[in-house]
Amino acid sequence: MMQTSPKISPQTTWMLAVRDGRDRAAFAALFDHFAPRLKGFIMRSGTGSGQAEEIVQDVMLTVWRKAELFDPARAQVSAWIYQIARNRQIDVIRKENRPLPEELGEAPGTEPDASQILGIEQEAGRLKQALARLTPDQREIIERAYMGDLSHQEISTLTGLPLGTIKSRIRLGLERLRHELKELR
């Protein structure tokens, strides 16, 4: 039986076009997709609208300049871009000497050591195993919502499923993941 490869998201397709061909139209599509999401993500941690827009511009410029570093085998394009945004936001906050929001905080100058990296890789492995134990319907919806960075309404439109079904599958899938991963806390 032949295995089918997982579907590549439009965002990954765009990122690969930017990485491999410096495709400006693909970059514009990436920008249009991620800019408003990044701005909301940044503003939720207390950054003002104007500064959030500046950070988004810096992040997307970094995405263009460092596109060759993107590896879809290592991370989803959304995870890669959000990590760039998180790092840029930390840099801006540190320059202003503001206290870091708790979820962004890291001790200055700390680099993850081998045990931290191994721990993160082990947690990621456990998460993959837990995701694999979900029903295919739950797993697909959760992956689209959290790894594909789609809203519930966007998932409903893509799949043709009612919004209530999408929300129920996400809720049930997350409950099961919490149960599967409770030992990680």
CATH architecture: Orthogonal Bundle
The CATH H-level superfamily is RNA polymerase sigma factor, region 2, helix turn helix motif
Percentage beta strand: under 5%
| Separation of the first and last Cα atoms | 39 Å
Explain how this protein is built.
The chain has 185 residues and is mainly alpha-helical. The chain has eight helices and no strands. It has a single domain, classed as RNA polymerase sigma factor, region 2, helix turn helix motif (Rna Polymerase Sigma Factor, Chain: A, Orthogonal Bundle), CATH 1.10.1740.10. The protein has helices at 10-21, 24-43, 49-65, 77-95, 114-132, 136-147, 152-159, 163-180. The model is unreliable at 1-5 (pLDDT under 50).
Keywords:
68% helix; 8 helices; 185 residues; 0% strand; mainly alpha; single chain; disordered N terminus; Rna Polymerase Sigma Factor, Chain: A
